[in-house]
UniProtKB/TrEMBL annotation:
Residues 164-384 form the Bacterial type II secretion system protein E domain. It comes from the Bacteria. This is Bacterial type II secretion system protein E domain-containing protein. GO terms for molecular function: ATP hydrolysis activity. Keywords: Plasmid. The keyword DNA-binding does not apply. InterPro entries: P-loop_NTPase, T2SS/T4SS_dom, T4SS_GSP_E_ATPase. The lineage of its organism: Bacteria, Bacillati, Bacillota, Bacilli, Bacillales.
Protein backbone atom coordinates (compact mmCIF):
# COMPACT_ATOMS: atom_id res chain seq x y z
CA UNK A 1 0.00 0.00 0.00
CA UNK A 2 2.86 2.39 0.90
CA UNK A 3 4.48 1.79 -2.49
CA UNK A 4 1.26 2.63 -4.32
CA UNK A 5 0.82 5.93 -2.38
CA UNK A 6 4.39 7.03 -3.11
CA UNK A 7 3.92 6.29 -6.80
CA UNK A 8 0.71 8.35 -6.79
CA UNK A 9 2.54 11.24 -5.03
CA UNK A 10 5.35 11.18 -7.58
CA UNK A 11 2.82 11.21 -10.43
CA UNK A 12 1.02 14.17 -8.78
CA UNK A 13 4.28 16.10 -8.32
CA UNK A 14 5.27 15.62 -11.95
CA UNK A 15 2.40 17.89 -12.96
CA UNK A 16 4.19 20.91 -11.31
CA UNK A 17 7.11 22.91 -12.76
CA UNK A 18 10.53 21.46 -12.03
CA UNK A 19 11.35 24.18 -9.40
CA UNK A 20 8.36 23.21 -7.31
CA UNK A 21 9.03 19.48 -7.82
CA UNK A 22 12.43 19.96 -6.14
CA UNK A 23 10.86 21.64 -3.11
CA UNK A 24 8.04 19.10 -2.78
CA UNK A 25 10.64 16.39 -2.40
CA UNK A 26 11.71 18.10 0.86
CA UNK A 27 10.39 21.06 2.92
CA UNK A 28 8.62 23.60 0.76
CA UNK A 29 8.45 27.29 1.73
CA UNK A 30 5.73 28.81 -0.44
CA UNK A 31 6.72 32.39 0.41
CA UNK A 32 10.34 31.75 -0.47
CA UNK A 33 9.32 30.31 -3.86
CA UNK A 34 7.00 33.22 -4.66
CA UNK A 35 9.61 35.81 -3.71
CA UNK A 36 12.22 34.09 -5.87
CA UNK A 37 9.87 34.12 -8.85
CA UNK A 38 8.36 37.57 -8.51
CA UNK A 39 10.15 39.54 -5.80
CA UNK A 40 8.94 40.91 -2.43
CA UNK A 41 5.64 42.08 -3.91
CA UNK A 42 4.58 38.41 -4.23
CA UNK A 43 5.16 37.60 -0.56
CA UNK A 44 2.02 36.27 1.12
CA UNK A 45 0.75 37.99 4.23
CA UNK A 46 0.55 35.12 6.63
CA UNK A 47 -1.70 35.11 9.66
CA UNK A 48 1.17 35.68 12.10
CA UNK A 49 2.53 38.54 10.02
CA UNK A 50 1.19 42.06 10.43
CA UNK A 51 0.15 43.90 7.22
CA UNK A 52 2.85 46.47 7.84
CA UNK A 53 5.54 43.78 7.95
CA UNK A 54 5.22 42.93 4.27
CA UNK A 55 5.84 46.56 3.36
CA UNK A 56 9.01 46.92 5.47
CA UNK A 57 12.48 46.14 4.32
CA UNK A 58 13.70 43.55 6.81
CA UNK A 59 17.20 43.32 5.42
CA UNK A 60 18.34 46.07 7.80
CA UNK A 61 17.80 46.88 11.48
CA UNK A 62 15.98 50.16 10.82
CA UNK A 63 13.43 48.50 8.58
CA UNK A 64 12.82 45.80 11.15
CA UNK A 65 12.46 48.43 13.89
CA UNK A 66 9.75 50.20 11.88
CA UNK A 67 7.97 46.91 11.39
CA UNK A 68 8.01 46.13 15.12
CA UNK A 69 6.84 49.66 15.92
CA UNK A 70 3.89 49.16 13.58
CA UNK A 71 3.22 45.78 15.19
CA UNK A 72 2.82 47.45 18.60
CA UNK A 73 0.88 50.38 17.13
CA UNK A 74 -1.61 47.97 15.57
CA UNK A 75 -2.02 46.24 18.92
CA UNK A 76 -2.96 49.57 20.50
CA UNK A 77 -5.37 50.38 17.65
CA UNK A 78 -6.95 46.92 17.62
CA UNK A 79 -10.74 47.43 17.55
CA UNK A 80 -11.28 44.07 19.25
CA UNK A 81 -9.76 45.12 22.58
CA UNK A 82 -11.48 47.10 25.32
CA UNK A 83 -10.46 50.56 26.51
CA UNK A 84 -9.21 48.99 29.73
CA UNK A 85 -6.98 46.60 27.77
CA UNK A 86 -5.72 49.48 25.63
CA UNK A 87 -4.92 51.57 28.71
CA UNK A 88 -3.13 48.63 30.31
CA UNK A 89 -0.98 48.13 27.23
CA UNK A 90 -0.05 51.82 27.23
CA UNK A 91 0.74 51.62 30.94
CA UNK A 92 3.09 48.69 30.32
CA UNK A 93 4.89 50.57 27.56
CA UNK A 94 5.27 53.71 29.69
CA UNK A 95 6.46 51.68 32.67
CA UNK A 96 9.06 49.99 30.49
CA UNK A 97 10.41 53.38 29.40
CA UNK A 98 11.25 54.35 32.99
CA UNK A 99 12.79 50.94 33.69
CA UNK A 100 10.11 48.77 35.30
CA UNK A 101 11.70 45.31 35.06
CA UNK A 102 8.44 43.37 34.68
CA UNK A 103 7.16 45.65 31.91
CA UNK A 104 10.51 45.54 30.13
CA UNK A 105 10.57 41.74 30.18
CA UNK A 106 7.01 41.55 28.86
CA UNK A 107 7.81 43.71 25.84
CA UNK A 108 11.08 41.93 25.07
CA UNK A 109 9.19 38.62 25.18
CA UNK A 110 6.56 39.98 22.78
CA UNK A 111 9.27 41.14 20.37
CA UNK A 112 10.99 37.76 20.62
CA UNK A 113 7.75 35.96 19.73
CA UNK A 114 7.13 38.35 16.83
CA UNK A 115 10.61 37.72 15.42
CA UNK A 116 10.28 33.96 15.79
CA UNK A 117 6.87 33.81 14.13
CA UNK A 118 8.08 36.03 11.31
CA UNK A 119 11.39 34.20 10.76
CA UNK A 120 13.25 37.48 11.25
CA UNK A 121 15.83 36.45 13.84
CA UNK A 122 18.97 36.82 11.71
CA UNK A 123 19.05 40.59 11.21
CA UNK A 124 22.42 42.05 12.37
CA UNK A 125 22.34 44.25 15.49
CA UNK A 126 24.84 46.07 17.71
CA UNK A 127 26.63 43.51 19.93
CA UNK A 128 26.27 45.75 22.99
CA UNK A 129 22.72 44.39 23.29
CA UNK A 130 21.89 40.96 24.68
CA UNK A 131 19.80 39.92 21.68
CA UNK A 132 18.04 41.24 18.60
CA UNK A 133 14.81 41.53 20.60
CA UNK A 134 16.63 43.47 23.32
CA UNK A 135 18.17 45.84 20.74
CA UNK A 136 14.76 46.52 19.21
CA UNK A 137 13.23 47.10 22.63
CA UNK A 138 15.89 49.66 23.61
CA UNK A 139 15.55 51.49 20.28
CA UNK A 140 11.75 51.62 20.40
CA UNK A 141 10.88 52.06 24.07
CA UNK A 142 13.99 53.41 25.77
CA UNK A 143 17.26 55.24 25.08
CA UNK A 144 18.65 53.52 21.97
CA UNK A 145 22.47 53.33 21.95
CA UNK A 146 22.63 55.21 25.25
CA UNK A 147 22.04 51.73 26.69
CA UNK A 148 25.85 51.46 26.53
CA UNK A 149 25.98 53.37 29.83
CA UNK A 150 24.66 50.22 31.53
CA UNK A 151 27.89 48.52 30.47
CA UNK A 152 29.83 51.06 32.58
CA UNK A 153 28.46 50.39 36.09
CA UNK A 154 31.22 52.49 37.72
CA UNK A 155 30.16 55.61 35.81
CA UNK A 156 28.12 57.84 38.16
CA UNK A 157 26.73 60.18 35.52
CA UNK A 158 26.20 60.61 31.80
CA UNK A 159 24.92 63.27 29.42
CA UNK A 160 23.10 63.51 26.13
CA UNK A 161 23.95 66.91 24.64
CA UNK A 162 22.34 67.43 21.28
CA UNK A 163 23.25 64.27 19.36
CA UNK A 164 26.34 63.57 21.48
CA UNK A 165 26.64 60.97 24.25
CA UNK A 166 29.10 61.51 27.13
CA UNK A 167 29.93 59.17 30.05
CA UNK A 168 31.75 60.22 33.20
CA UNK A 169 34.61 57.74 33.55
CA UNK A 170 37.30 58.06 36.22
CA UNK A 171 36.12 61.56 37.04
CA UNK A 172 36.17 62.88 33.46
CA UNK A 173 33.43 63.11 30.84
CA UNK A 174 34.40 61.01 27.83
CA UNK A 175 32.65 61.45 24.48
CA UNK A 176 31.33 58.17 23.06
CA UNK A 177 31.62 57.24 19.41
CA UNK A 178 27.91 56.45 19.34
CA UNK A 179 25.57 59.37 18.63
CA UNK A 180 21.89 59.89 18.05
CA UNK A 181 21.01 60.26 14.39
CA UNK A 182 19.64 63.76 14.89
CA UNK A 183 18.59 66.29 17.51
CA UNK A 184 15.02 65.44 16.54
CA UNK A 185 15.62 61.91 17.79
CA UNK A 186 16.65 63.31 21.18
CA UNK A 187 13.51 65.46 21.24
CA UNK A 188 11.48 62.30 20.60
CA UNK A 189 13.22 60.68 23.56
CA UNK A 190 12.25 63.62 25.78
CA UNK A 191 8.63 63.29 24.63
CA UNK A 192 8.77 59.58 25.39
CA UNK A 193 9.92 60.30 28.95
CA UNK A 194 7.22 62.94 29.32
CA UNK A 195 4.52 60.50 28.19
CA UNK A 196 5.78 57.97 30.73
CA UNK A 197 5.56 60.40 33.67
CA UNK A 198 2.12 61.94 34.04
CA UNK A 199 3.32 64.47 36.64
CA UNK A 200 6.23 65.67 34.51
CA UNK A 201 5.95 68.57 32.07
CA UNK A 202 8.62 70.23 29.96
CA UNK A 203 8.04 72.90 27.31
CA UNK A 204 9.27 76.36 26.30
CA UNK A 205 7.54 77.91 29.33
CA UNK A 206 9.03 75.23 31.63
CA UNK A 207 12.28 74.32 29.85
CA UNK A 208 13.81 72.26 32.65
CA UNK A 209 12.61 69.40 34.81
CA UNK A 210 13.66 66.31 36.73
CA UNK A 211 12.30 62.80 37.05
CA UNK A 212 13.40 59.42 38.39
CA UNK A 213 13.76 56.07 36.70
CA UNK A 214 12.73 52.88 38.46
CA UNK A 215 16.32 52.05 39.45
CA UNK A 216 16.75 55.40 41.20
CA UNK A 217 18.62 57.10 38.36
CA UNK A 218 17.98 60.84 38.48
CA UNK A 219 17.25 62.41 35.09
CA UNK A 220 17.47 66.17 34.47
CA UNK A 221 16.09 67.38 31.13
CA UNK A 222 16.69 70.83 29.66
CA UNK A 223 15.46 72.15 26.32
CA UNK A 224 15.77 75.41 24.34
CA UNK A 225 15.60 78.28 25.09
CA UNK A 226 17.28 77.30 28.39
CA UNK A 227 20.04 75.46 26.49
CA UNK A 228 21.21 75.63 22.90
CA UNK A 229 20.44 71.94 22.33
CA UNK A 230 18.22 69.47 24.19
CA UNK A 231 20.27 68.13 27.10
CA UNK A 232 19.60 65.11 29.31
CA UNK A 233 21.73 64.43 32.40
CA UNK A 234 21.65 61.06 34.17
CA UNK A 235 22.98 60.52 37.72
CA UNK A 236 22.96 57.30 39.71
CA UNK A 237 24.39 55.59 42.76
CA UNK A 238 27.25 53.31 41.77
CA UNK A 239 27.54 51.73 45.23
CA UNK A 240 24.80 49.35 46.32
CA UNK A 241 26.55 47.82 49.32
CA UNK A 242 26.17 50.26 52.18
CA UNK A 243 28.76 49.34 54.79
CA UNK A 244 31.95 50.89 56.11
CA UNK A 245 33.83 47.79 54.97
CA UNK A 246 32.68 48.63 51.43
CA UNK A 247 33.75 52.25 51.90
CA UNK A 248 37.19 51.04 53.03
CA UNK A 249 37.50 48.70 50.04
CA UNK A 250 37.00 51.72 47.76
CA UNK A 251 39.59 53.81 49.60
CA UNK A 252 37.00 56.25 50.96
CA UNK A 253 38.17 55.59 54.53
CA UNK A 254 41.17 53.74 55.96
CA UNK A 255 40.47 50.01 56.56
CA UNK A 256 41.65 50.35 60.17
CA UNK A 257 39.08 53.10 60.74
CA UNK A 258 36.04 50.92 60.03
CA UNK A 259 35.27 50.39 63.77
CA UNK A 260 35.61 54.14 64.40
CA UNK A 261 33.02 55.00 61.74
CA UNK A 262 30.71 52.22 62.88
CA UNK A 263 30.68 53.73 66.36
CA UNK A 264 30.26 57.28 65.04
CA UNK A 265 27.09 56.13 63.26
CA UNK A 266 25.70 54.23 66.25
CA UNK A 267 26.06 57.17 68.64
CA UNK A 268 23.37 59.06 66.70
CA UNK A 269 24.91 62.49 66.87
CA UNK A 270 23.39 65.30 64.79
CA UNK A 271 25.58 64.83 61.74
CA UNK A 272 26.23 66.79 58.56
CA UNK A 273 27.97 65.10 55.62
CA UNK A 274 29.34 67.83 53.37
CA UNK A 275 31.14 68.03 50.06
CA UNK A 276 30.86 68.98 46.41
CA UNK A 277 28.58 67.34 43.84
CA UNK A 278 29.40 63.64 43.29
CA UNK A 279 31.80 63.51 46.23
CA UNK A 280 30.04 60.49 47.74
CA UNK A 281 27.87 62.31 50.30
CA UNK A 282 24.65 60.40 49.65
CA UNK A 283 26.40 57.02 49.74
CA UNK A 284 28.07 57.94 53.03
CA UNK A 285 24.71 59.06 54.45
CA UNK A 286 23.16 55.71 53.53
CA UNK A 287 26.14 53.94 55.09
CA UNK A 288 25.59 55.82 58.35
CA UNK A 289 21.91 54.87 58.14
CA UNK A 290 22.78 51.22 57.52
CA UNK A 291 24.95 51.13 60.65
CA UNK A 292 22.27 52.54 62.91
CA UNK A 293 20.03 50.07 64.78
CA UNK A 294 17.44 48.67 62.36
CA UNK A 295 14.64 49.11 64.90
CA UNK A 296 14.87 52.91 64.82
CA UNK A 297 12.35 54.81 62.70
CA UNK A 298 13.63 57.57 60.42
CA UNK A 299 11.86 60.47 58.72
CA UNK A 300 13.39 61.00 55.27
CA UNK A 301 12.77 64.48 53.82
CA UNK A 302 14.03 65.57 50.39
CA UNK A 303 12.85 67.72 47.51
CA UNK A 304 12.83 64.84 45.01
CA UNK A 305 12.72 61.11 45.77
CA UNK A 306 16.25 59.94 45.05
CA UNK A 307 17.58 58.27 48.21
CA UNK A 308 15.10 55.36 48.22
CA UNK A 309 15.86 54.08 51.71
CA UNK A 310 12.90 51.69 51.71
CA UNK A 311 14.05 50.15 48.44
CA UNK A 312 17.56 49.52 49.72
CA UNK A 313 16.51 48.63 53.28
CA UNK A 314 13.19 46.82 52.82
CA UNK A 315 13.10 45.43 56.37
CA UNK A 316 13.19 48.86 58.00
CA UNK A 317 10.40 51.28 58.80
CA UNK A 318 11.11 54.68 57.27
CA UNK A 319 8.74 57.50 56.33
CA UNK A 320 9.93 59.09 53.06
CA UNK A 321 8.60 62.53 52.09
CA UNK A 322 9.19 64.65 48.99
CA UNK A 323 8.61 68.29 49.88
CA UNK A 324 9.17 71.40 47.76
CA UNK A 325 10.93 74.45 49.24
CA UNK A 326 7.76 76.47 49.45
CA UNK A 327 5.90 73.72 51.27
CA UNK A 328 8.52 72.57 53.75
CA UNK A 329 7.67 74.86 56.67
CA UNK A 330 3.95 74.35 56.13
CA UNK A 331 4.11 70.56 56.16
CA UNK A 332 7.05 70.04 58.52
CA UNK A 333 4.89 70.35 61.61
CA UNK A 334 2.58 67.62 60.27
CA UNK A 335 5.48 65.42 59.17
CA UNK A 336 7.13 65.59 62.58
CA UNK A 337 3.97 64.17 64.14
CA UNK A 338 4.85 60.81 62.60
CA UNK A 339 6.44 58.60 65.22
CA UNK A 340 10.17 58.69 64.55
CA UNK A 341 13.55 58.47 66.22
CA UNK A 342 15.52 60.84 63.98
CA UNK A 343 15.33 62.94 60.82
CA UNK A 344 17.26 62.56 57.55
CA UNK A 345 17.49 65.43 55.05
CA UNK A 346 19.25 65.44 51.69
CA UNK A 347 20.96 68.41 50.00
CA UNK A 348 19.86 71.10 52.44
CA UNK A 349 19.93 74.71 51.30
CA UNK A 350 18.21 77.75 52.78
CA UNK A 351 14.72 76.64 53.73
CA UNK A 352 15.82 73.02 54.18
CA UNK A 353 18.71 74.03 56.45
CA UNK A 354 16.33 75.94 58.69
CA UNK A 355 13.93 73.00 58.70
CA UNK A 356 16.76 70.58 59.53
CA UNK A 357 17.76 72.63 62.57
CA UNK A 358 14.11 72.91 63.55
CA UNK A 359 13.48 69.20 63.09
CA UNK A 360 16.55 68.20 65.10
CA UNK A 361 15.60 70.49 67.97
CA UNK A 362 12.04 69.11 68.09
CA UNK A 363 12.83 65.46 67.53
CA UNK A 364 15.25 62.98 69.02
CA UNK A 365 18.98 63.23 68.40
CA UNK A 366 20.48 61.65 65.33
CA UNK A 367 19.90 64.12 62.49
CA UNK A 368 21.58 62.98 59.27
CA UNK A 369 21.91 65.56 56.52
CA UNK A 370 23.96 66.20 53.41
CA UNK A 371 25.10 69.61 52.31
CA UNK A 372 26.94 70.96 49.26
CA UNK A 373 29.72 72.83 51.03
CA UNK A 374 32.38 75.02 49.43
CA UNK A 375 34.62 75.39 52.51
CA UNK A 376 34.57 72.37 54.87
CA UNK A 377 35.93 74.27 57.87
CA UNK A 378 33.06 76.76 57.59
CA UNK A 379 30.12 74.36 57.52
CA UNK A 380 28.27 76.06 60.37
CA UNK A 381 28.80 79.58 59.03
CA UNK A 382 27.76 78.60 55.50
CA UNK A 383 24.64 76.81 56.71
CA UNK A 384 23.73 79.91 58.72
CA UNK A 385 24.21 82.07 55.63
CA UNK A 386 21.89 79.80 53.63
CA UNK A 387 19.21 80.23 56.29
CA UNK A 388 19.74 83.99 56.10
CA UNK A 389 19.35 83.92 52.30
CA UNK A 390 15.90 82.40 52.78
CA UNK A 391 15.00 84.58 55.79
CA UNK A 392 16.86 87.91 55.36
CA UNK A 393 15.17 89.52 58.38
CA UNK A 394 17.04 87.22 60.76
CA UNK A 395 20.45 87.98 62.28
CA UNK A 396 23.46 86.06 61.02
CA UNK A 397 24.99 85.77 64.50
CA UNK A 398 21.86 84.11 65.86
CA UNK A 399 21.75 81.58 63.01
CA UNK A 400 25.43 80.66 63.44
CA UNK A 401 24.76 80.13 67.13
CA UNK A 402 21.69 77.98 66.42
CA UNK A 403 23.54 75.78 63.91
CA UNK A 404 26.47 75.37 66.32
CA UNK A 405 24.12 74.39 69.13
CA UNK A 406 22.35 71.82 66.95
CA UNK A 407 25.10 70.09 64.97
CA UNK A 408 27.48 67.73 66.76
CA UNK A 409 29.47 65.91 64.09
CA UNK A 410 30.73 66.79 60.63
CA UNK A 411 32.11 64.58 57.85
CA UNK A 412 33.57 66.23 54.75
CA UNK A 413 34.26 64.46 51.45
CA UNK A 414 36.04 65.17 48.20
CA UNK A 415 36.61 63.53 44.82
CA UNK A 416 40.26 62.98 43.93
CA UNK A 417 41.80 62.14 40.52
CA UNK A 418 40.58 58.85 39.14
CA UNK A 419 37.10 59.52 40.60
CA UNK A 420 38.31 58.39 44.04
CA UNK A 421 35.90 59.49 46.78
CA UNK A 422 37.60 60.17 50.10
CA UNK A 423 36.65 61.38 53.56
CA UNK A 424 38.77 64.50 54.09
CA UNK A 425 37.80 65.19 57.69
CA UNK A 426 35.72 64.12 60.66
CA UNK A 427 35.15 66.79 63.31
CA UNK A 428 33.09 67.57 66.37
CA UNK A 429 31.00 70.74 66.57
CA UNK A 430 31.21 72.06 70.13
CA UNK A 431 29.25 74.82 71.83
CA UNK A 432 29.83 76.16 75.34
CA UNK A 433 26.67 77.73 76.78
CA UNK A 434 28.60 79.34 79.66
CA UNK A 435 30.96 81.31 77.43
CA UNK A 436 28.79 81.46 74.29
CA UNK A 437 31.68 80.09 72.23
CA UNK A 438 31.67 77.48 69.48
CA UNK A 439 34.43 75.61 67.66
CA UNK A 440 35.13 72.55 65.57
CA UNK A 441 37.62 69.94 66.73
CA UNK A 442 39.11 67.60 64.12
CA UNK A 443 39.26 63.90 65.01
CA UNK A 444 40.38 62.70 61.57
CA UNK A 445 41.85 64.73 58.73
CA UNK A 446 43.30 63.68 55.38
CA UNK A 447 46.68 65.20 54.57
CA UNK A 448 46.88 65.44 50.75
CA UNK A 449 50.59 66.32 50.81
CA UNK A 450 51.64 63.00 52.31
CA UNK A 451 48.52 61.13 51.17
CA UNK A 452 47.42 59.77 54.53
CA UNK A 453 44.90 60.33 57.31
CA UNK A 454 45.95 62.01 60.57
CA UNK A 455 44.20 61.76 63.95
CA UNK A 456 43.43 63.55 67.20
CA UNK A 457 42.19 61.59 70.23
CA UNK A 458 40.94 64.55 72.31
CA UNK A 459 37.18 64.11 72.30
CA UNK A 460 34.63 66.25 74.13
CA UNK A 461 32.99 65.32 77.41
CA UNK A 462 29.63 65.34 75.68
CA UNK A 463 30.86 62.82 73.12
CA UNK A 464 32.27 60.61 75.87
CA UNK A 465 28.89 60.65 77.62
CA UNK A 466 27.13 59.70 74.37
CA UNK A 467 29.60 56.84 73.85
CA UNK A 468 28.92 55.53 77.34
CA UNK A 469 25.18 55.58 76.64
CA UNK A 470 25.62 52.88 73.99
CA UNK A 471 27.93 50.85 76.24
CA UNK A 472 31.19 51.06 78.17
CA UNK A 473 32.79 48.45 75.92
CA UNK A 474 31.95 50.51 72.84
CA UNK A 475 33.32 53.63 74.56
CA UNK A 476 36.58 51.97 75.58
CA UNK A 477 37.14 50.34 72.17
CA UNK A 478 36.56 53.62 70.32
CA UNK A 479 38.87 55.64 72.58
CA UNK A 480 41.61 53.01 72.48
CA UNK A 481 41.56 52.69 68.69
CA UNK A 482 41.50 56.46 68.19
CA UNK A 483 44.49 56.80 70.55
CA UNK A 484 46.39 54.11 68.64
CA UNK A 485 45.68 55.83 65.33
CA UNK A 486 46.76 59.18 66.81
CA UNK A 487 50.03 57.71 68.07
CA UNK A 488 50.76 56.26 64.63
CA UNK A 489 49.72 59.35 62.63
CA UNK A 490 49.12 62.47 64.75
CA UNK A 491 47.41 65.55 63.38
CA UNK A 492 50.00 67.88 61.81
CA UNK A 493 47.69 70.92 61.77
CA UNK A 494 45.65 72.73 64.41
CA UNK A 495 42.97 70.45 65.82
CA UNK A 496 40.65 73.30 66.86
CA UNK A 497 39.16 76.04 64.68
CA UNK A 498 36.82 78.68 66.15
CA UNK A 499 33.33 79.32 64.81
CA UNK A 500 32.95 83.08 64.71
CA UNK A 501 29.84 84.76 66.10
CA UNK A 502 29.68 88.16 64.42
CA UNK A 503 27.37 89.99 62.08
CA UNK A 504 28.56 91.56 58.84
CA UNK A 505 30.75 94.60 59.49
CA UNK A 506 31.60 93.68 63.08
CA UNK A 507 35.21 93.52 64.27
CA UNK A 508 36.87 90.63 66.03
Amino acid sequence: MTTIIREEEQEEQSRFPIGIQERLSGEFDLNQFLVEKGGEKNRLRLQNESPSQSRANHNDFQGLKESVQNFFHEKIQDQNITEEERDERLRIQHSATIGDAEAMNMLVDEITTYLRNSSLQNIPYDPMFDSLAHALFEHIFRFKNFYKWQLHPESPSAKISGKEIWFKINGQFVKQEEEFESVKEVEQLIRLLQQSNKNFTINEQHPQGELDLEDGTRVTLTIPPRTLYPTIVFRRFIVNQFSFEEQASRGTIHPNDVPLFQTLAKVRRNTVIAGAVESGKSTMLKTFYAERPSGLVALMIEEHPETFLKRDFPDRLVHEFSIKDGDIQRVLRTVLRFDHDYVIMQEVRGVEADAAMDGASRGANGLLMTYHVTEPSKVCEQLAQHVLDAYPNRRYINEVRRVSQTLELGVTMKTFPGNKKRVTSVFEVNYDYDTDRAWISYLIRFNPIVGKWEYNDHISEKFQEQLLEIGKEEHDSFCQLLSERTAASPLSTEAVQPILFKDAGEGE
